[in-house]
């Protein structure tokens, strides 16, 4: 058995090598839905922080899903109030069972539609907190706008995006890498 120790090398090996970003700290940033670039904030070579806005996209699909959610939330609230009113009236024997059951059924359908619309937004990457705070005309932005953000702090090493360009989920408009550590891939023959 030999103990591993650092020693000076007397033999020199000349070889080619490639310097690459650490593959474990590399991210290809893509949207979950198609969108048109309406504002490009980060450019090739820029340093970015985690969560920093890279670009703002506009998506008809997202606008439709947000509008459907907001409508379902309003319908749910109306159905809830109607059901609660019918429940009180039915318990006092003022309202018919038919009216009570109709209000209850409408409330349950509205609740199912609301949950489906909420889940559709979650699948697009919108957080529960963002969904809860959502309202018509949020922050002056159209419902169809959404940000593409940096997943971690790093440097933009690839940018394939220009203003007005349509970006699909299979496209990679940005590649972000943490250049704090790099990999050096050296081509060394087996006999060496």
Characteristics:
192 residues, alpha+beta, four-stranded antiparallel beta sheet, 3 helices, elongated
Structure description:
This protein is an alpha+beta fold. The chain has 3 helices and 10 strands; from the N terminus they run βββββαααβββββ. The protein has a 4-stranded antiparallel β-sheet, with no helix packed on it. Strands 6-5-3-8 form a 4-stranded antiparallel β-sheet. A two-stranded antiparallel ribbon has the order 1-10. α1 packs antiparallel against α2 (97-123). The two termini are 22 Å apart. The mean pLDDT is 89.
- Return Rg in Å: 28 Å
What separation lies between the terminal Cα atoms? 22 Å
- The low-confidence runs, each spanning 5 or more residues with pLDDT under 50, are none
Structural classification: alpha+beta
Percentage beta strand: 15-25%
Neighbour order of strands in the largest sheet: 2-9-7-4
What topology emerges from the helices and strands here?
Layout: E1 17-21, E2 26-29, E3 35-40, E4 47-48, E5 53-58, H1 60-91, H2 97-123, H3 128-133, E6 145-149, E7 154-159, E8 166-167, E9 174-177, E10 182-186
Antiparallel strand pairs: 1-10, 2-9, 3-5, 3-8, 4-7, 5-6, 7-9
